[in-house]
Amino acid sequence: MPKTKFEDAIYTITMATIMVYGMIVYNVALNTGGVSGQTFLLATHEMIIMVPVAFVLEFFIVGKIAQKLAFTVMKPTDRPQFITYAISICICCIMCPIMSLVATILFKDQHTFGTWIQTWAMNFPMAICWQIFYCGPLVRLIFRTIFRKK
């Protein structure tokens, strides 16, 4: 896991990019009624806006709040793997409604409270699964490969 601010920035950029891309693909698939090769291409257009938003939110605000929340149920002496999962879940619980709001405002036809709640409700289960089972492990593998201890 990141030890310096530089490493934290690289980790957050990688996580934001992969997490946002996966969630955009999911939302494009929902909006178009299925997944095709076009789905993956269409998802790249929203990344230009959503990745910087996700990075700034997570790096400067949400990461710190999520750690504090996670340590209300975890102890520093708990297994590092469980601490990582707790922090990841807390980040999803905070980021999902915020990013769903941003997406509702920028990309949905209707900008209503109901549209935001529906978007959030549809995204949350996918965000947790994507983070815990795929994105998180992949980003940690990439990070360990880049910042291999010598």
From TrEMBL:
Q: Membrane-crossing residues?
A: 9-28, 40-61, 82-107, 119-143
* Record's keyword annotation contains Transmembrane helix: yes
User: Is the Nuclease keyword given for this protein?
Assistant: no
Signal sequence interval, chain numbering: none
Q: Which domain of life is it from?
A: Bacteria
Q: What's one Pfam family here? A: DUF2798
Q: Which UniProt keywords apply?
A: Membrane, Transmembrane, Transmembrane helix
The identity of this protein, by name, is DUF2798 domain-containing protein
Q: Which organism is it from?
A: Faecalicatena fissicatena
What is the phylogenetic placement of the source species in the record?
Bacteria, Bacillati, Bacillota, Clostridia, Lachnospirales
